[in-house]
Write a structure and sequence with these properties.
alpha/beta; 10 strands; binds iron/sulfur cluster
Length: 289
């Protein structure tokens, strides 16, 4: 059972004076993930009810400065690979088995695929990874899959494929209505489904699915059935799914009407998805409730 350590709840996007790069002890990476924030302006094309990004305060940085980002990434790699990170108070209690660098994660304060030079930044980060001889370190794209149809994003996804990349695509509804309740966006659910299907036809995807209580209610049985149907639709269309990550709220979200599922609810949901959709499932719990 994956456990939640204190560090798992401290996903600060800022590290020292960095603007774009930050280290995270990630449950889903089972080690250190070096986060790359391509949306320092905090703009996102979704407005998820469980989002952790504090959009009530003004963004200090509006644009990605590529040279500075790559410089910060190089310094962060030195910090992690030298082992200096384990002397930092924030990371000194990390257990031995998690003291490993798993990935660079394109994530941050918005949807990374909306970054206009998405393909170029993937290319530059992949080059830096190669230069450091870190072929085994993954490039993870944490995405809502809303922009996969754009050519610049398709080029970026192809570069990920060539550089030990993995796509973690958000899918956490089975119906348009629940999708709108959770993601609050103008982008139609069908566009996301079509994008995930097309991308999964090219390479196996990881699906990331956060379920929660909304105004006290967990997702209904009918919604979970519909979610499983969507997973089965993707696979019936030739899409390959490597894994579904079922998780719940681990930290205080922006909206007060959102709360975590219990461990038993996460277990039941994961078991249902695993047997009905015939895909491997990993589960990640919230705080003890
Ligand atoms: S897609 Fe991610 S960054 Fe955007 S609102 Fe949802 S959780 Fe927040």
């Amino acid at each position: 059972m994956p456990t939640t350590l204190p560090q798992h709840t401290q996903h600060s996007r800022r590290y020292e004076q960095n603007k774009f790069v930050y280290p995270v002890l990630s449950r889903r990476s089972r080690g250190i993930s070096i986060g790359i924030n391509l949306n320092p302006d905090k703009v996102c094309n979704f407005d998820c009810i469980y989002c952790q990004v504090n959009r009530r305060s003004e963004a200090e940085t509006r644009f990605v400065e590529t040279d500075r980002l790559l410089h910060e990434l190089g310094d962060m790699l030195d910090f992690v690979t030298s082992g200096d990170i384990w002397h930092d108070p924030q990371f000194e209690s990390v257990p031995e088995h998690l003291r490993r660098l798993n990935d660079f994660a394109f994530s941050g304060d918005g949807e990374p695929t909306t970054f206009r030079n998405f393909d170029a930044i993937i290319d530059q980060v992949a080059q830096l990874k190669r230069d450091r001889g870190l072929q085994n370190v993954k490039l993870v794209l944490i995405t809502n899959a809303s922009m996969f149809h754009r050519p610049v994003v398709q080029r970026g996804l192809a570069l990920l494929d060539q550089n030990n990349g993995e796509i973690w695509a958000k899918l956490e509804a089975g119906t348009e209505a629940y999708y709108q309740l959770v993601e609050r966006t103008k982008i139609p659910f069908q566009q996301v489904l079509d994008n995930i299907t097309a991308a999964a036809q090219v390479r196996p995807l990881v699906i990331q699915s956060l379920f929660m209580r909304v105004n006290g209610d967990p997702p209904s049985d009918a919604e979970i059935d519909a979610f499983i149907e969507r997973l089965n639709d993707i696979q019936a269309s030739g899409g390959r799914l490597k894994l579904v990550q079922i998780y719940t709220v681990a930290r205080q979200p922006a909206e007060s009407f959102v709360a975590p599922l219990t461990h038993a609810e996460v277990d039941a949901l994961a078991a249902r998805v695993e047997s009905a959709a015939r895909v491997p499932v990993e589960r990640y719990y919230g705080p003890d409730v």
